[in-house]
Amino acid sequence: MKVLFRSRGFIGKHQQEGLSSRVPPGQYVTADFPVLSAGPTPHTPLEQWTFEVNGLVCEPIHWSWAEFQQLPSRKYTVDIHCVTKWTKLDTQWEGVSIDTLLEIAGLDPKAHFVLAYSDGGYSTNIPLDEMINDKAFIAYNYAGAPLPAEHGGPARLVVPALYFWKSAKWVRGLTLMEKNKLGFWESLGYNNHGDPWKEERYFGDRTD
User: Fold this and answer.
1) How far apart are CA 121 and CA 170, in angstroms?
2) Non-local CB neighbours of 38 within 8 Å, separated by 6+ positions
3) pTM exceeds 0.85 for this model
4) What percent of the chain has pLDDT over 90?
5) Measured CA distances, 191 to 37, 178, 196, 201 (Å)
6) Which neighbouring-strand residues pair with 102?
7) pLDDT > 70: what percent of the chain?
8) Domains of the chain, residue spans
9) Is the pLDDT of residue 4 over 50?
């Protein structure tokens, strides 16, 4: 029997009026940027930091921090939605599109899922089609400054279409897979997909 792990931050507020087109069901808008983590904040020196794309790719590849900074980047303005029910609108990031990374590594047509893994042992699984076509990116700047460690710096995955636990902090790599594999929170009862518009918070919640 699967045990549901419910975050202590899971509290409800009424959805704010006038924002229904941007705020998923059960969410409320906040001006803050709450810090929620599964464990202590890692602090990897930049000279030791690397990022890797492996698994079902034509050529596994890794970058040092200096090399990653040389990749084509762009600025993003996106809304983010936490499973603990807060939504933050118009967050501003800068980083590298997942499309850029997969173009360099070369995508095997058998790949359908991604496992993002991080410092501290965290991982999360995401369907590949939620990651490509400029839907996701690796961010290293937030609000015009280097991404703070408490928010996942030096770099985190950002997948705006899914609940924010899928946007792995302190990300260090992506593994491309043919079959899905549960990540950290997913193995503890969180939803395998995590679409905020369908309220896919926990195992057994609606998944189309």
Assistant:
1) 10
2) 120, 122, 184, 185
3) yes
4) 81
5) 17, 19, 11, 5
6) none
7) 88
8) 46-198
9) no
- Phi (first) and psi of residue 158, to 5 degrees: -130, 120
Average pLDDT over residues 67-91: 97
Q: pLDDT of 128-137, one tens digit each?
A: 999 999 999 9
d(CA 150, CA 188): 23
For 171, the token pair is 């990300």
Residues 47 and 65: beta-carbon distance below 8 Å: yes
Nearest to 71 by CA among 92, 98, 49, 45: 98
> What is d(CA 200, CA 208) in angstroms, rounded to the nearest whole number?
10
> Which of the 8 DSSP states describes residue 6?
-
pLDDT at 15 over 50: no
Q: Which of 106, 85, 59, 61 is nearest to 165 (CA)?
A: 85
Rounded CA separation 174/164 (Å): 17
pLDDT over threshold 70, residue 207: no
pLDDT band at 197 (very low <50, low <70, confident <90, very high): very high
Cα Rg of the chain, angstroms: 16
CA angle 77, 97, 149 (to 5 degrees): 70
Selecting from 3.30.70.2860, 3.90.420.10, 3.40.50.300, 3.20.20.70, what CATH number does the domain 46-198 have?
3.90.420.10
